[in-house]
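## Example pair
The file below holds two records. Each record gives the amino-acid sequence first, followed by its structure token line.
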Amino acid sequence: MTELDEKAALSILEGYRNDPQQIISALLDIQEASGRSYVDRRWALAAARVTGVPAARVHEILTFYSMFSETPRGRHVAEVCLSGPCLVNGGEELLRRLSAALDVSEGETSADGLFTLEGGGCCGRCAGAPVVRIGDEAYTVASDADAAALVLSFRDGDPAGREALRCVRWGSCPKARTRRIRWTSRGMCPEEAIGPWKRPSTWTPPG
């Protein structure tokens, strides 16, 4: 798996030059481009310099918000919602199913480097609880067979293989109804937790 090089990292960060309010968006883009779902210390310091945010503040952001990691993870992070609605509807069982399908425990990365399994906070899909979020999508996994099919679809690069599991029902959190859904270690709604963020130009509210 190719590491993010200096040229690519600086190219990403250039779009956020002297814009401290967009530090979280800058770090998310770096993390996504890393190929291992993490922000290397080199690029964290570069983000601080380019945006004008103190390095100490960048470190606080990376260690406070659960969507960030300072150590390499799998290419995909499977975050099982363990907030109240998902927990009482089988969140721990969902975590067990995915743990078995991936042959890892919570917090571990699969042998092929493709998945890291984590517990997370609310992603606004309470009506479909329990759910697991992978990237910008959430999935409902109702059986061991569903868990195996979901994992296989990512390993085979087959989006159609997981379409039936995709959760399209939204919960009661209006601030979570965005394509760039992120949650925090305190389970707060994304806009409330991180403040201003950069909405993609193609963003449209879900129907």
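Second record, same layout:
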Amino acid sequence: MTRTSTARAANAGRRGFTTVLESEFPHGGRVLNLGAGLVSWARDTTTVVNVDHVPGPRHPAACQVVADAGHLPFRAGSFTGVLAKDVLEHLVDPVPALALLHDVTAPGAMLIATVPRAVPRAVWDDPTHVRGFTANAVRTAMGLSGWRVRTLGRIGGFPGAGRLGLTPYLELIMKVPGFGHRFGTNWLVRAQRIDEGPGG
């Protein structure tokens, strides 16, 4: 794959991820977008609080907060959902951050996260990554911090997916033998808050 085709595949993956967000987070809720970075996600019928450790662009329909993943300035039960896209691989120990996310969410809250699979091209292409994740590592980290994994699947893009109109189907396509292994460089995690508390 060339750099151009790799970039196009990544863009197709991001568009597919937006489709996941729209379907998973209920309208009218309050969503914490942890690690918003340079992209703020917003929806008119949902309150989205974009959080990053550095200031980012402001989206007219969203709040921007500068905070660290280990020290979130929110009260318990503040959010009905959490988006943590491409965040956990930057943390030496993701379990305390996931436990803090558990604390600031309401009972029944959903967490949607993406993390790189434990394959070199996914992990080490970004020098700020400190880890990749096996499926077992994802489930263990979530369980130790009060989250129950509902679904765990490969996500990514491939050249031409956008032009062919396949973006809404990328998650399904990644289940086809061979496609997910080659093009699914990240895990897409859907987890639900365990209401008994972390480890419960």
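Notes on the second record: The beta strands are 30-34, 47-52, 62-66, 79-85, 105-116, 147-155, 186-193. The radius of gyration is 16 Å.
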